[in-house]
Amino acid sequence: MDEDDLPSTPNSIHYDTLGIPEDASLNDICRAYKNLVMKWHPDKHSLDKLQAHDNFFKITEAYRVLSNKKREESAVPIINFNELKTPKTSKTTKSRKGALKNDREDFISSPILSPRKGRRNSAASMEDIYSSLSKGTSGINICTPSSVTNPGTPSTTAAGGDYPSLSRTGTRCNSTPIIYSHSTVRRKPQPIERKLKCTLEELWRGCEKKIKITRDVISGSGLIMQQEEILKIKVKAGWKKGTKITFEGKGDERPGTLPADIIFIIDEKRHPVFKRAGDDLELGVEVPLVEALTGCTISIPILGGENKSLSFDEILYPGYEKIIPGQGMPKSKEQGMRGNLHLKFLVEFPTDLSDEQRSQVLSVLNECNYT
User: Fold this and answer.
1) CA-to-CA distance for 164 and 278, rounded, in angstroms?
2) Over the stretch 79-96, which tens digit does the pLDDT of each residue have?
3) pLDDT higher than threshold 80 for residue 336
4) Beta 192-198 vs 172-173: how paired, if at all?
5) Which of 25, 170, 262, 340 sits most deeply, having the most CB atoms within 10 A of its CB?
6) Per the record, where are the segments of Polar residues compositional bias (predicted)?
7) What is the pLDDT of residues 25-51, one digit of tens each?
8) pLDDT tens for residues 224-268?
9) How far apart are CA 307 and CA 318, in angstroms?
């Protein structure tokens, strides 16, 4: 994503990303954000994780910018309880010093100055106190008890109930919800899997693979930048198809999540001559019928480029198998040990015989022992 796709100040792009109008309230922003992050979470899009990651980042960034703006607009100044001044009263009224020391009930029932005509009211409620303060000349608006919540403190305003604290810490207006989803736990996306194709020769002798990746990283200033990196994989001799090599945290970095792991899975390229079966190798050998019946000497290729000469005196019939020990694949868990090479013979028959040849073959084969 380009640096300018989502600016740090609110504009129409952020509202379009969340699909809300520009006059949307904070509740509308939170509701749209919740629906979209559930829809575009990368865990729900296994087929197109890159697009899901990109959409998830845009949604998160738009929510952050717009919600911060709304919270700044709706911020309410809070006055410390000790800063409230008790109105001047008659001689029968307790002094300011005594009123502050008394319990809450005495303070609520103490006479206060009526905001309208200056008369005293001996049964003022907490709502009246806040109402009179909110209409003062200082220009400071104060949340009324019904709109203030204090985490961990009862908010009951009925008779005998506790009123919320007005301390500077722990008070929030209920029009500003607190979102905890990205502030405590950073989830790790599903790992990214890629196939690493190797030839049989590479798996036979071992090799080193260098893979260039380009990933998104978050800079110290909070910008997302692309970074190139070379990953080195030392392929050990004898590794099989399906072997996994994991690079932890080498996936794209996204706000609110940990970078995913990258997993490379060994995959074998098809060989033109040999077929692998575990630690063993298989090789098909086709010989003419006459050599299969009379014996022959053949040169067998060995994986790695060498050749081995073998002589056969026995009859080679279709499906005959010859095992050459120690000429298979290396055993990765048994140093110095190798599997076997299995030679499977195919017999090439003539496609046409004359009547005389048929007669001669018949006379010869009739005298053969088939047991």
Assistant:
1) 72
2) 443 444 445 444 444 444
3) yes
4) unpaired
5) 262
6) 146-158
7) 888 888 888 888 888 887 777 777 788
8) 899 999 999 999 999 999 999 999 999 999 888 899 999 999 999
9) 23
For residue 98, the SS3 value is helix
**What's the one-letter identity of residue 250?**
K
Closest alpha carbon to 168 in 271, 81, 241: 81
Q: What pLDDT score does 68 carry?
A: 84
Q: Which of 202, 104, 113, 210 is nearest to 162 (CA)?
A: 104
Q: Are 206 and 224 in contact (CB under 8 A)?
A: no
What is the number of other CB atoms lying within 10 angstroms of the CB of residue 182? 15
- As a whole number of angstroms, the distance between CA 91 and CA 76 comes to 36
The dihedral formed by the CA atoms of 64, 67, 70 and 76, expressed in degrees to the nearest 10: -100
231's tokens: 């990953």
Look up tokens 């390229």; give the residue: 269
Task: Measure the CA–CA gap between 12 and 20, rounded to whole angstroms.
Answer: 10
**Cα 64 versus chain centre, distance:** 20
pTM: 0.47
Grade residue 135 by pLDDT with cuts at 50, 70 and 90: very low
Q: For residue 156, give both structure tokens.
A: 């009951």
